[in-house]
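Translate structure to sequence.
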């Protein structure tokens, strides 16, 4: 019997391309403050560490563009966060969709008896919306950012450990699958194996520089790797 019986997935850039909806909500929030929009490439670089970090970076970039960096403060950030959240909770699935091959991977994992989970720095409410819409029949549980409950966001190990607790498995039975440096650090901090996917928001060279050692070019390759662990 294989040692690995559980696969924990990151969401954005791993299971789904969510960037178009994230970008739309970022730019909606900026527009409410009469600030210039950010490009898709910028927002791609800003994602991974949760909504607050995303909005801090986006807001600072917009203020820098109009030569008013000194206007950044907690009140302006709070307004931006509020505008983003109110928009994103309605529009988080407008254009977001699973990457090609993901649903087949999840079906294969389920048929092979693997337990599965999502852990994401995306707000918990939106994670549940996307889980229900796309993955409720093939991923066992989904956890989003919930620091108010004392569960630190990634790269702290808390979310992975909470998922393992829910699933009733040990660290050595689990592999973590993600697309970013945050995911690599999360797996290291949690003490679990990591697979870095190459179809997401970060390039192979960047991931290697951040310590990635195991890569998957396609969802089917993820299945091959976890089946061999």
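Result:
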């Amino acid at each position: 019997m294989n040692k690995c019986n559980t696969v924990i997935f990151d969401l954005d850039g791993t299971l789904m391309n969510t960037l178009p909806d994230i970008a739309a909500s970022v730019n909606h929030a900026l527009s409410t403050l009469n600030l210039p929009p950010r490009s898709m490439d910028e927002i791609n670089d800003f994602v991974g560490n949760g909504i607050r970090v995303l909005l801090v970076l986006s807001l600072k970039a917009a203020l820098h563009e109009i030569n008013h960096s000194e206007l950044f403060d907690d009140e302006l950030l709070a307004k931006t966060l509020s505008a983003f959240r109110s928009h994103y909770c309605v529009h988080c699935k407008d254009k977001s969709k699973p990457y090609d091959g993901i649903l087949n991977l999840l079906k294969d994992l389920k048929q092979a008896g693997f337990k599965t989970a999502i852990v994401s720095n995306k707000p918990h409410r939106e994670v549940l919306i996307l889980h229900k819409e796309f993955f409720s029949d093939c991923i066992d549980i989904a956890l989003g950012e919930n620091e108010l409950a004392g569960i630190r966001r990634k790269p702290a190990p808390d979310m992975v450990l909470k998922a393992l607790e829910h699933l009733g498995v040990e660290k050595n039975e689990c592999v973590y699958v993600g697309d970013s440096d945050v995911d690599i650090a999360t797996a290291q901090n949690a003490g679990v194996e990591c697979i870095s996917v190459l179809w997401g928001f970060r390039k192979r060279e960047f991931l290697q520089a951040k310590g990635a050692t195991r890569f998957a070019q396609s969802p089917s390759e993820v299945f091959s790797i976890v089946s061999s662990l």
